């Protein structure tokens, strides 16, 4: 609603920035909790913010260097009506957890992902309870990885075995136990972090009498235009290697880190457009939407369709060698989600996979073109 103040975390990242733009476009005032002045300057200089030209009363920033610190958000929550909490470590460079001995690495993966996410969620809830007298709702970003076993995302056999060989359909109310440590990979630690932080937030909300309610938004893999990305190396623009570029060296069998990888990749076919995810977060603030519920956001994607769809919309980059029809063979794990509430309750129609490809490839080609000349 126009003029209400929203505290937004993660606003210097891909999704959070898109939420920020949507909030401003819909008349909210926004206080962004950021970790550095450098990131604040980047957000202020991004195209949609420049175009919207918000006043100092419409867009403000507060520095919160460590979301896991005790009372980190005590100041940031003051006078706000809503919170959207989208901050979370997503990569090892956020986590700085990739060096040291194996046991130190495993421990630091747990600290950097699981502890940070859980403390971040609990810390913002505690600050809201103790210092945010006007807060009516907190919308938290989660992830579909929080509510399905990690094996489901990359292993068709595991899905078939666990769910009797049927195509799996999971809804927003599905929950799983928190995977036990040790976490031996970033992915493992990240999935555990999302499950543990969702459970921690919901348990906190259930066990305390609060003035506000909680809504969790669980998107699948988010694709889309990334205004904060400065070059074409962004994973968002390369579509997670679904669209390989022409190899600069001979294709390599078995080297998954290499752009020329020739093998097979089996992974769950789930994707959602970033602007749809942002819209869902902002729609969830509306008082006509009941609190204490969750939403799963996803449209089914068949990864093996990516190259044919792209070719149909953008034939030239294949002719000129920008994209390469070779590369790994993708196989899609059939894990489906029940997203009906997103349309019925939030009124958001999720974009098709085809539309997502068009948006991402369009931005990629624009950025590549401007970079080369
Ligand atoms: N990307 C996806 O495909 C996807 C899918 C489903 C759910 N999600 C969820 O969506 C949310 C945003 O993801 P994203 O793709 O936008 O990631 P992103 O671009 O990496 O942005 C992450 C944001 O969180 C902040 N952050 C990271 N670690 C932090 C920490 N320890 N303390 C405080 N802030 C921290 C970052 O701040 P800096 O800018 O200072 O680094 C940044 O603002 C996350 O909760 C993620 O789990 C993402």
Automatic annotation (TrEMBL):
Span of domain NAD-dependent epimerase/dehydratase: 6-287
Keyword tags: Oxidoreductase
One Pfam family from the record: Epimerase
Top-rank taxon: Eukaryota
InterPro entries: Epimerase_deHydtase (IPR001509), NAD(P)-bd_dom_sf (IPR036291), NAD(P)_dehydrat-like (IPR050425)
PANTHER family: NAD DEPENDENT EPIMERASE/DEHYDRATASE, STEROL-4-ALPHA-CARBOXYLATE 3-DEHYDROGENASE, DECARBOXYLATING
Recorded family membership: Belongs to the NAD(P)-dependent epimerase/dehydratase family. Dihydroflavonol-4-reductase subfamily.
UniProt-recorded name of the protein: NAD(P)-binding protein
